[in-house]
Write a structure and sequence with these properties.
It is built from 13 helices and nine strands. The protein has about 375 residues and is of the alpha/beta class. A nine-stranded mixed sheet has the order 3-4-2-1-5-6-7-8-9, with helices on both faces. The protein is globular, with a radius of gyration of 25 Å.
Protein backbone atom coordinates (compact mmCIF):
# COMPACT_ATOMS: atom_id res chain seq x y z
CA UNK A 1 0.00 0.00 0.00
CA UNK A 2 1.30 3.45 -0.90
CA UNK A 3 2.01 6.25 1.58
CA UNK A 4 -0.83 8.31 0.08
CA UNK A 5 -3.25 5.42 0.58
CA UNK A 6 -2.16 5.02 4.20
CA UNK A 7 -2.64 8.73 4.80
CA UNK A 8 -6.12 8.51 3.30
CA UNK A 9 -6.94 5.76 5.81
CA UNK A 10 -5.89 8.15 8.60
CA UNK A 11 -8.00 10.94 7.12
CA UNK A 12 -10.97 8.57 6.90
CA UNK A 13 -10.51 7.62 10.55
CA UNK A 14 -10.32 11.30 11.51
CA UNK A 15 -13.59 11.97 9.69
CA UNK A 16 -15.18 9.05 11.52
CA UNK A 17 -14.02 10.55 14.82
CA UNK A 18 -15.62 13.87 13.91
CA UNK A 19 -18.85 12.13 12.91
CA UNK A 20 -18.89 10.31 16.25
CA UNK A 21 -18.25 13.55 18.11
CA UNK A 22 -21.10 15.21 16.21
CA UNK A 23 -23.47 12.40 17.24
CA UNK A 24 -22.26 12.70 20.82
CA UNK A 25 -22.86 16.47 20.82
CA UNK A 26 -26.42 15.92 19.60
CA UNK A 27 -27.01 13.57 22.53
CA UNK A 28 -25.37 16.09 24.89
CA UNK A 29 -27.75 18.83 23.74
CA UNK A 30 -30.73 16.53 24.29
CA UNK A 31 -29.50 15.68 27.78
CA UNK A 32 -28.94 19.38 28.47
CA UNK A 33 -32.56 20.18 27.61
CA UNK A 34 -33.78 17.17 29.62
CA UNK A 35 -31.83 18.26 32.72
CA UNK A 36 -32.92 21.89 32.33
CA UNK A 37 -36.61 20.97 32.05
CA UNK A 38 -36.37 18.86 35.21
CA UNK A 39 -33.94 21.14 37.07
CA UNK A 40 -31.36 18.36 37.38
CA UNK A 41 -27.69 19.18 38.05
CA UNK A 42 -25.48 19.46 34.98
CA UNK A 43 -22.39 18.01 36.61
CA UNK A 44 -22.77 14.36 37.60
CA UNK A 45 -19.41 13.10 38.98
CA UNK A 46 -20.88 9.66 39.74
CA UNK A 47 -21.67 9.24 36.04
CA UNK A 48 -18.28 10.47 34.85
CA UNK A 49 -16.32 7.91 36.89
CA UNK A 50 -17.66 4.81 35.06
CA UNK A 51 -17.54 6.63 31.68
CA UNK A 52 -13.81 7.28 32.10
CA UNK A 53 -13.18 3.79 33.52
CA UNK A 54 -14.93 2.22 30.54
CA UNK A 55 -12.93 4.37 28.11
CA UNK A 56 -9.65 3.36 29.77
CA UNK A 57 -10.63 -0.33 29.62
CA UNK A 58 -11.61 0.04 25.97
CA UNK A 59 -8.27 1.70 25.24
CA UNK A 60 -6.36 -1.19 26.80
CA UNK A 61 -8.40 -3.73 24.82
CA UNK A 62 -7.48 -1.90 21.61
CA UNK A 63 -3.82 -1.47 22.42
CA UNK A 64 -4.19 2.27 22.93
CA UNK A 65 -2.81 4.42 25.72
CA UNK A 66 -5.44 4.65 28.52
CA UNK A 67 -3.89 7.92 29.73
CA UNK A 68 -4.08 9.49 26.27
CA UNK A 69 -7.67 8.35 25.78
CA UNK A 70 -8.64 9.72 29.20
CA UNK A 71 -7.10 13.11 28.38
CA UNK A 72 -9.06 13.32 25.14
CA UNK A 73 -12.28 12.20 26.83
CA UNK A 74 -11.91 14.77 29.59
CA UNK A 75 -11.67 17.52 26.94
CA UNK A 76 -14.85 16.14 25.34
CA UNK A 77 -16.60 16.07 28.73
CA UNK A 78 -15.57 19.68 29.45
CA UNK A 79 -17.04 20.68 26.08
CA UNK A 80 -20.25 18.86 26.98
CA UNK A 81 -20.52 20.71 30.28
CA UNK A 82 -20.08 24.03 28.50
CA UNK A 83 -22.83 23.11 26.04
CA UNK A 84 -25.25 22.07 28.77
CA UNK A 85 -24.51 25.14 30.89
CA UNK A 86 -25.23 27.39 27.90
CA UNK A 87 -28.54 25.59 27.34
CA UNK A 88 -29.57 26.10 30.97
CA UNK A 89 -28.53 29.76 31.08
CA UNK A 90 -30.47 30.61 27.93
CA UNK A 91 -33.50 28.46 28.76
CA UNK A 92 -34.16 29.98 32.19
CA UNK A 93 -34.22 33.58 30.89
CA UNK A 94 -33.06 34.76 34.31
CA UNK A 95 -32.88 38.37 33.10
CA UNK A 96 -36.30 38.16 31.43
CA UNK A 97 -35.96 41.49 29.64
CA UNK A 98 -34.61 43.42 32.62
CA UNK A 99 -32.20 46.22 31.77
CA UNK A 100 -28.47 45.82 32.42
CA UNK A 101 -25.67 48.34 31.97
CA UNK A 102 -22.05 47.20 31.64
CA UNK A 103 -19.67 50.09 32.27
CA UNK A 104 -16.40 49.26 30.53
CA UNK A 105 -18.23 46.75 28.38
CA UNK A 106 -15.66 46.84 25.57
CA UNK A 107 -12.86 45.69 27.87
CA UNK A 108 -12.09 41.99 27.96
CA UNK A 109 -14.03 41.14 31.14
CA UNK A 110 -16.62 43.74 30.21
CA UNK A 111 -17.25 41.85 26.98
CA UNK A 112 -17.56 38.62 28.94
CA UNK A 113 -20.23 40.13 31.20
CA UNK A 114 -21.99 41.68 28.23
CA UNK A 115 -22.30 38.28 26.52
CA UNK A 116 -23.24 36.55 29.76
CA UNK A 117 -26.01 38.99 30.66
CA UNK A 118 -27.35 38.90 27.09
CA UNK A 119 -27.50 35.08 27.33
CA UNK A 120 -29.49 35.53 30.53
CA UNK A 121 -32.02 37.55 28.48
CA UNK A 122 -31.12 40.94 29.95
CA UNK A 123 -31.48 43.91 27.63
CA UNK A 124 -27.84 45.03 27.75
CA UNK A 125 -26.36 48.47 27.13
CA UNK A 126 -22.60 49.03 27.02
CA UNK A 127 -21.05 52.25 28.30
CA UNK A 128 -17.47 52.62 27.16
CA UNK A 129 -15.30 55.40 25.68
CA UNK A 130 -14.46 52.95 22.89
CA UNK A 131 -18.06 53.10 21.64
CA UNK A 132 -18.78 55.03 18.46
CA UNK A 133 -19.00 58.82 18.90
CA UNK A 134 -22.78 59.19 18.66
CA UNK A 135 -24.52 59.67 21.99
CA UNK A 136 -26.55 56.49 21.77
CA UNK A 137 -26.77 53.91 19.06
CA UNK A 138 -27.00 50.24 18.31
CA UNK A 139 -23.62 48.66 17.65
CA UNK A 140 -23.93 46.98 14.23
CA UNK A 141 -21.59 44.12 15.18
CA UNK A 142 -23.08 43.25 18.57
CA UNK A 143 -26.68 44.48 18.26
CA UNK A 144 -26.21 46.21 21.61
CA UNK A 145 -27.11 49.71 22.67
CA UNK A 146 -23.93 51.68 23.34
CA UNK A 147 -22.96 55.02 24.87
CA UNK A 148 -19.52 56.52 25.28
CA UNK A 149 -20.04 58.02 28.76
CA UNK A 150 -21.80 56.00 31.44
CA UNK A 151 -23.33 59.19 32.82
CA UNK A 152 -25.32 59.53 29.60
CA UNK A 153 -27.09 56.32 30.58
CA UNK A 154 -28.34 57.72 33.86
CA UNK A 155 -32.01 57.02 34.41
CA UNK A 156 -34.46 55.09 36.54
CA UNK A 157 -34.52 51.94 34.48
CA UNK A 158 -31.38 49.95 35.30
CA UNK A 159 -31.96 46.67 37.09
CA UNK A 160 -28.28 45.64 37.13
CA UNK A 161 -25.15 47.73 36.59
CA UNK A 162 -21.77 46.03 36.31
CA UNK A 163 -18.73 48.29 36.77
CA UNK A 164 -16.02 46.57 34.72
CA UNK A 165 -13.63 49.50 34.25
CA UNK A 166 -9.99 49.61 35.45
CA UNK A 167 -9.73 49.69 39.23
CA UNK A 168 -9.02 53.39 39.76
CA UNK A 169 -11.54 54.38 37.10
CA UNK A 170 -14.09 52.13 38.82
CA UNK A 171 -13.40 53.93 42.11
CA UNK A 172 -14.24 57.30 40.49
CA UNK A 173 -17.38 55.89 38.89
CA UNK A 174 -18.60 54.43 42.18
CA UNK A 175 -17.88 57.72 43.97
CA UNK A 176 -20.00 59.60 41.43
CA UNK A 177 -22.80 57.06 41.81
CA UNK A 178 -22.69 57.47 45.60
CA UNK A 179 -23.00 61.24 45.21
CA UNK A 180 -25.73 61.25 42.59
CA UNK A 181 -27.55 58.01 43.34
CA UNK A 182 -28.06 55.04 41.03
CA UNK A 183 -30.94 52.60 40.54
CA UNK A 184 -30.98 48.82 40.79
CA UNK A 185 -28.22 46.44 41.76
CA UNK A 186 -24.66 47.75 41.32
CA UNK A 187 -21.52 45.66 41.61
CA UNK A 188 -17.88 46.06 40.65
CA UNK A 189 -15.62 43.22 39.47
CA UNK A 190 -12.29 44.67 40.64
CA UNK A 191 -9.34 42.38 41.36
CA UNK A 192 -8.28 44.67 44.23
CA UNK A 193 -10.85 46.17 46.58
CA UNK A 194 -8.87 48.65 48.73
CA UNK A 195 -9.25 51.60 46.29
CA UNK A 196 -12.99 50.87 46.05
CA UNK A 197 -13.82 50.56 49.74
CA UNK A 198 -14.62 54.24 50.46
CA UNK A 199 -16.97 54.51 47.48
CA UNK A 200 -18.63 51.16 48.21
CA UNK A 201 -19.27 52.30 51.78
CA UNK A 202 -20.77 55.59 50.62
CA UNK A 203 -22.98 53.80 48.10
CA UNK A 204 -24.37 51.52 50.82
CA UNK A 205 -24.88 54.49 53.15
CA UNK A 206 -26.78 56.27 50.38
CA UNK A 207 -29.15 53.31 50.07
CA UNK A 208 -27.83 52.02 46.75
CA UNK A 209 -28.11 48.24 46.37
CA UNK A 210 -24.38 47.70 46.06
CA UNK A 211 -22.19 44.59 46.28
CA UNK A 212 -18.69 43.64 45.24
CA UNK A 213 -17.85 40.68 43.00
CA UNK A 214 -14.59 39.11 41.86
CA UNK A 215 -14.83 36.48 39.10
CA UNK A 216 -11.81 34.22 39.57
CA UNK A 217 -11.38 33.51 35.87
CA UNK A 218 -10.38 35.30 32.71
CA UNK A 219 -12.39 36.49 29.72
CA UNK A 220 -11.65 33.42 27.60
CA UNK A 221 -13.63 31.09 29.88
CA UNK A 222 -16.58 29.51 28.08
CA UNK A 223 -18.28 27.79 31.01
CA UNK A 224 -18.09 28.11 34.77
CA UNK A 225 -17.81 24.56 36.03
CA UNK A 226 -14.95 24.43 38.52
CA UNK A 227 -14.68 28.24 38.55
CA UNK A 228 -15.10 30.42 41.60
CA UNK A 229 -16.92 33.72 41.91
CA UNK A 230 -16.28 35.74 45.06
CA UNK A 231 -19.26 37.75 46.29
CA UNK A 232 -18.82 40.29 49.06
CA UNK A 233 -21.28 42.21 51.18
CA UNK A 234 -20.40 45.91 50.77
CA UNK A 235 -22.88 47.06 53.41
CA UNK A 236 -26.10 45.85 51.79
CA UNK A 237 -26.64 42.15 52.54
CA UNK A 238 -29.62 41.78 50.21
CA UNK A 239 -27.59 43.20 47.32
CA UNK A 240 -24.87 40.61 47.89
CA UNK A 241 -27.49 37.87 47.59
CA UNK A 242 -28.85 39.51 44.43
CA UNK A 243 -25.38 39.59 42.93
CA UNK A 244 -24.85 35.91 43.71
CA UNK A 245 -28.24 35.10 42.15
CA UNK A 246 -27.09 36.54 38.80
CA UNK A 247 -24.90 33.42 38.45
CA UNK A 248 -27.38 30.89 39.82
CA UNK A 249 -27.98 29.09 36.52
CA UNK A 250 -24.28 28.46 35.95
CA UNK A 251 -22.01 25.77 37.40
CA UNK A 252 -19.80 28.32 39.18
CA UNK A 253 -19.10 27.91 42.88
CA UNK A 254 -20.19 31.10 44.63
CA UNK A 255 -18.00 31.92 47.64
CA UNK A 256 -19.20 34.59 50.06
CA UNK A 257 -16.20 36.39 51.51
CA UNK A 258 -15.89 39.30 53.97
CA UNK A 259 -14.91 42.33 51.92
CA UNK A 260 -12.09 43.26 54.29
CA UNK A 261 -10.43 39.84 53.80
CA UNK A 262 -10.37 39.95 49.99
CA UNK A 263 -7.10 41.75 49.28
CA UNK A 264 -4.96 39.77 51.74
CA UNK A 265 -6.03 36.52 50.08
CA UNK A 266 -5.78 37.84 46.52
CA UNK A 267 -2.22 39.06 47.19
CA UNK A 268 -1.28 35.37 47.27
CA UNK A 269 -3.76 33.87 44.84
CA UNK A 270 -3.09 36.41 42.08
CA UNK A 271 -0.20 38.64 43.14
CA UNK A 272 2.21 35.87 44.15
CA UNK A 273 1.41 33.60 41.22
CA UNK A 274 1.73 36.46 38.71
CA UNK A 275 5.03 37.64 40.21
CA UNK A 276 6.52 34.15 40.29
CA UNK A 277 5.79 33.57 36.61
CA UNK A 278 7.03 36.99 35.52
CA UNK A 279 10.24 36.46 37.50
CA UNK A 280 10.66 33.03 35.88
CA UNK A 281 10.41 34.56 32.41
CA UNK A 282 12.72 37.43 33.29
CA UNK A 283 15.36 35.00 34.59
CA UNK A 284 15.15 33.13 31.29
CA UNK A 285 15.25 36.33 29.26
CA UNK A 286 18.35 37.61 31.00
CA UNK A 287 20.12 34.22 31.01
CA UNK A 288 21.63 34.70 27.57
CA UNK A 289 20.09 31.43 26.39
CA UNK A 290 17.91 31.48 23.31
CA UNK A 291 14.43 29.98 23.37
CA UNK A 292 15.05 27.42 20.55
CA UNK A 293 18.02 25.94 22.41
CA UNK A 294 16.09 25.72 25.67
CA UNK A 295 13.16 24.14 23.85
CA UNK A 296 15.36 21.36 22.49
CA UNK A 297 16.48 20.27 25.96
CA UNK A 298 13.41 21.19 27.99
CA UNK A 299 11.90 18.97 30.67
CA UNK A 300 8.29 18.22 31.57
CA UNK A 301 8.47 20.61 34.55
CA UNK A 302 10.08 23.35 32.45
CA UNK A 303 7.47 23.00 29.71
CA UNK A 304 4.59 23.17 32.17
CA UNK A 305 6.01 26.20 33.91
CA UNK A 306 6.75 27.93 30.62
CA UNK A 307 3.18 27.42 29.42
CA UNK A 308 1.78 28.97 32.58
CA UNK A 309 4.29 31.84 32.51
CA UNK A 310 3.63 32.50 28.83
CA UNK A 311 -0.07 32.77 29.59
CA UNK A 312 0.61 35.32 32.33
CA UNK A 313 2.85 37.39 30.07
CA UNK A 314 0.09 37.56 27.46
CA UNK A 315 -2.37 39.25 29.81
CA UNK A 316 -3.05 42.97 30.25
CA UNK A 317 0.11 44.47 31.82
CA UNK A 318 -1.74 47.51 33.17
CA UNK A 319 -4.23 45.32 35.01
CA UNK A 320 -1.49 43.07 36.36
CA UNK A 321 0.47 46.09 37.58
CA UNK A 322 -2.67 47.36 39.32
CA UNK A 323 -3.06 44.00 41.04
CA UNK A 324 0.50 44.30 42.38
CA UNK A 325 0.60 48.01 43.11
CA UNK A 326 -2.85 48.75 44.48
CA UNK A 327 -3.13 45.78 46.81
CA UNK A 328 -2.01 46.92 50.28
CA UNK A 329 -0.77 43.39 51.01
CA UNK A 330 1.15 43.10 47.74
CA UNK A 331 4.54 44.37 48.93
CA UNK A 332 4.44 42.00 51.91
CA UNK A 333 3.79 39.00 49.65
CA UNK A 334 6.55 40.01 47.21
CA UNK A 335 8.92 40.24 50.18
CA UNK A 336 7.93 36.70 51.17
CA UNK A 337 8.73 35.53 47.65
CA UNK A 338 12.11 37.25 47.72
CA UNK A 339 12.89 35.70 51.12
CA UNK A 340 11.91 32.25 49.87
CA UNK A 341 14.20 32.57 46.84
CA UNK A 342 17.03 33.76 49.09
CA UNK A 343 16.58 30.78 51.45
CA UNK A 344 16.78 28.47 48.47
CA UNK A 345 19.82 30.26 47.02
CA UNK A 346 21.65 30.18 50.35
CA UNK A 347 20.88 26.48 50.94
CA UNK A 348 22.36 25.57 47.55
CA UNK A 349 25.33 27.95 47.78
CA UNK A 350 26.31 26.76 51.24
CA UNK A 351 25.66 23.07 50.68
CA UNK A 352 22.85 22.88 53.24
CA UNK A 353 21.22 19.66 52.05
CA UNK A 354 19.04 19.39 55.14
CA UNK A 355 17.65 22.88 54.54
CA UNK A 356 16.96 22.08 50.88
CA UNK A 357 15.24 18.81 51.75
CA UNK A 358 13.27 20.62 54.41
CA UNK A 359 11.99 23.12 51.84
CA UNK A 360 10.74 20.30 49.62
CA UNK A 361 9.27 18.26 52.45
CA UNK A 362 7.50 21.14 54.15
CA UNK A 363 6.17 22.29 50.77
CA UNK A 364 4.84 18.82 50.02
CA UNK A 365 3.21 18.64 53.47
CA UNK A 366 1.49 21.99 52.86
CA UNK A 367 0.16 20.87 49.48
CA UNK A 368 -1.08 17.55 50.85
CA UNK A 369 -2.85 19.30 53.72
CA UNK A 370 -4.64 21.47 51.15
CA UNK A 371 -5.24 18.65 48.65
CA UNK A 372 -4.88 15.20 50.28
CA UNK A 373 -3.59 12.47 47.93
CA UNK A 374 -6.43 11.05 45.87
CA UNK A 375 -8.59 14.17 46.15
CA UNK A 376 -9.72 16.04 43.06
Amino acid sequence: MSLDALRERIAEADRALLDAWERREAAVRAIGHFKTERNLPIHDPAREIPVIAEARAGARARGLSPDAVERVLRVVIETSRARQEAIRVKAHHHGDGAKALVIGGFGRMGRWFTRFLADLAYEVTVADPAACPSDSQTDSQTDLQTVRDWREARGPDWDVTVVAAPILVSARILERMARDGWPGLVFDIGSVKAPLLPALGRLAAAGVRVASVHPMFGPDVTHLHGRHILVMDAGHAEAAEEAAAVFRDTMAEILHLPLEEHDALIAYVLGLSHALNLAFLDALRTSGEQAPRLARISSVTFDRQLRVAAGVSGENPDLYFEIQRLNPDGAHVLARLANAVERLRRAVAEGEGDTFRGLMQSGRAWVEARHPPGSS
